[in-house]
């Protein structure tokens, strides 16, 4: 499972490029390297399950969370392509795309006062359980909550700039 990750929230001209480069390194480069490292053994054994953790942010642009969303889009695309490539080998690839949930992520990403992270969020345990269960069923793209499945479906029919603008307002920090 490739789970390690963190976010950086803020205006692009104000965030720290070192953090963003580190995020690209972790979410994209390390994930590809680790997958390459393990997949060969799995293929030799004709058995294995790879679970990559992306995010709901993988599906669309997220202003003020732009590099994070772009790296998760990479994880989603890479995982779906690889899942197709490995079809019939006994090795499966699942990509998990949760929305906001409670963890250490919010504080590290400086997401306080961001609307998407307000209200009661599912716990990390609740979300992880769904991911594990669906991976066992060899589900390729796992979206753990029905409300997000419906929203993603609706978003397909909307102009991309409308979706981006909606995300912008959901990611704009409110005064506490
Ligand atoms: N929480 C959310 O709302 C949310 C939503 C969608 C997707 N996700 C994704 O879910 C995954 C897990 O995040 P989480 O919410 O469980 O956050 P978390 O509680 O902060 O856990 C993040 C994990 O990533 C590790 N990590 C962070 N930076 C690292 C680095 N540079 N090198 C190696 N390991 C590093 C951390 O290790 P240490 O503890 O050793 O630092 C920790 O184990 C991430 O990929 C995140 O993008 C989270």
TrEMBL record:
It holds the Pfam family adh_short. One of its GO terms (molecular function) is oxidoreductase activity. InterPro entries: NAD(P)-bd_dom_sf, Sc_DH/Rdtase_CS, SDR_fam. Keywords: Oxidoreductase. CDD domains: SDR_c (cd05233). The keyword Ribonucleoprotein does not apply. Belongs to the short-chain dehydrogenases/reductases (SDR) family. This is Short-chain dehydrogenase/reductase SDR.
């Amino acid at each position: 499972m490739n789970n390690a990750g963190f976010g950086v929230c803020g205006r692009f001209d104000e965030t720290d490029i070192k953090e963003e480069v580190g995020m690209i390194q972790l979410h994209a480069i390390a994930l590809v390297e680790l997958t390459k490292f393990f997949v060969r053994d799995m293929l030799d054994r004709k058995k294995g399950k790879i679970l990559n953790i992306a995010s709901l942010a993988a599906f669309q642009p997220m202003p003020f969370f732009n590099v994070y969303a772009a790296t998760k889009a990479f994880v989603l695309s890479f995982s779906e392509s690889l899942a197709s490539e490995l079809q019939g080998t006994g090795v499966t690839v699942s990509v998990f795309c949760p929305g906001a949930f409670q963890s250490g992520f919010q504080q590290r990403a400086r997401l306080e006062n961001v609307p998407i992270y307000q209200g009661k969020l599912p716990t990390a345990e609740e979300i992880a359980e769904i991911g594990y269960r669906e991976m066992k069923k060899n589900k390729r793209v796992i979206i753990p909550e029905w409300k997000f499945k419906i929203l993603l479906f609706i978003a397909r029919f909307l102009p991309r700039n409308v979706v981006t603008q909606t995300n912008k307002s959901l990611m704009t920090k409110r005064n506490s």
